[in-house]
Amino acid sequence: IILSVGRFFRYGHSKNQLIIARAFRRFLQRGGGDGEWKLVLIGSLNEDVEDDMRYFSEVRKELEGSNHEIIENADRSVLKEYYEKAYIYLHASGFGKDPQKDPDKFEHFGITPVEAMARGCYPVVYRIGGPASLLSKLGIGRVFGSIAELVDILQELTEAYPKALHGEVLERVHDFLESNALPEKLEEIITQGEIYES
């Protein structure tokens, strides 16, 4: 499973599920994954906001006919289940934006990649912003700057499928959290559901 988590919306610091969907489609068109890999998008959706609904429909249309699952407004138990089953975690906030002109369109920390890594998901994030800085500190994961680059990374990771990386991700994230006295705060944030809603 390739997983991405975040609210479905187009503006601000959008999670860019449409970019992820396009990359996944290109990955499949290239013969990537031999049909064994599935993209799962989980996020809250405000059905009262017309543009959010339009965006959600665009993402769904982009993925038609592919091995995917979109789960809107899932409860925490479903989210936890997918974090534990997923192998790769994708995060694309800030994609295609200028950090000088639009700094608000980037993740300044990005808690969902941390939550995913804390459960062993291998992180692949956009090259600018908090998640990319965090991966640099941890010395693990991959960053991408274009859809083509993301497709290449997916191809490489799914071909190798190095299960040993799961343990390495867990070890580095837990060491980082411990050394920065973050476990209690992270657990509080996860328990209160702030991660999923943000």
Protein architecture, described:
This protein has 9 helices and 6 strands; from the N terminus they run E-H-E-H-E-H-E-H-E-H-E-H-H-H-H. With 198 residues, the chain is an alpha/beta fold. Helix 1 packs parallel to helix 2 (50-62) and helix 1 packs across helix 6. It is 48% helix and 13% strand. Residues 194-198 have low confidence and may be disordered. The two termini are 23 Å apart.
Features:
198 residues; alpha/beta; six-stranded parallel β-sheet; single chain; 9 helices; 6 strands; disordered C terminus
List the helices and strands and how they pair.
Blueprint: E1 2-5, H1 17-29, E2 39-43, H2 50-62, E3 68-72, H3 76-85, E4 88-91, H4 111-117, E5 122-126, H5 130-138, E6 142-144, H6 147-160, H7 164-179, H8 183-192, H9 194-197
Parallel strand pairs: 1-2, 1-4, 2-3, 4-5, 5-6
What's this, in brief?
With 198 residues, this protein is an alpha/beta fold. The chain is built from nine helices and six strands, in the order βαβαβαβαβαβαααα. The longest helix is centred in the last third of the chain and has 16 residues, at 164-179.
Shape: globular
Per DSSP E runs of 2 or more residues, the count of β-strands stands at 6
What's the rounded overall pLDDT mean? 84
Tally of DSSP helical segments: 9
Helix content range? 40-55%
Main structural class: alpha/beta
Q: Main β-sheet: number of strands, strand sense, barrel status?
A: 6 strands, parallel
Poorly predicted regions are 194-198
Strand order of the largest sheet: 3-2-1-4-5-6
The string of secondary-structure elements, in order, is EHEHEHEHEHEHHHH
Terminus-to-terminus distance: 23 Å
Beta-strand residue fraction = 5-15%
Please state the CA-atom Rg, rounded to the nearest Å: 16 Å
